[in-house]
Design a protein that fits this description.
Blueprint lengths: L1 H15 L18 E5 L14 E4 L7 E5 L4 E5 L15 E3 L2 E3 L9 E2 L14 E7 L2 E5 L1
């Protein structure tokens, strides 16, 4: 009887697992440790208080990190081109509005800062964890 109860307890977790179609294990972008505190009370970060705005920090991540206000939360992505070899594309992605573009492959469709995805691309932008504590964000991996 106990074995059945244990199996029933784990059954919802088995149904909730989704293999998904997004591949975050990107071999093109190295894993650098990231621990980036952001105090939105500081003038250089005040832009993050408004939806669809972003800030860029080039001091962490592989090619820098973009932090984006989605209106319902925050996303943080690495600025290394996800579908280019790290050694061949040495420039960070450029940001225009709500999109990011690889500067090494201009024919590639843009990546959305809402999802990090780009139509027809194997890998999305590399995401980072965003923890919110009042007016402070902490970006980590």
């Amino acid at each position: 009887m106990k074995k059945i109860l244990v199996l029933l307890a784990f059954f919802p977790f088995l149904l909730g697992c989704d293999g998904g179609t997004i591949n975050y294990n990107n071999p093109n972008i190295p894993n650098y440790p990231v621990n980036l505190p952001i105090n939105m009370n500081l003038p250089q970060y005040s832009n993050l208080r408004f939806p669809s705005n972003h800030i860029i920090n080039y001091s962490q991540g592989a090619r820098g990190i973009v932090i984006f206000n989605t209106g319902s939360g925050y996303n943080a992505f690495d600025l290394a081109c996800p579908n280019e070899a790290f050694t061949t594309c040495s420039t960070p992605m450029s940001i225009s509005g709500i999109d990011a573009r690889c500067n090494c492959n201009t024919s590639e469709s843009p990546y959305s800062l809402f999802s990090g995805q780009s139509a027809g691309q194997q890998y999305p932008m590399k995401p980072y964890r965003v923890q919110i504590n009042g007016d402070n964000l902490v970006i980590t991996n």
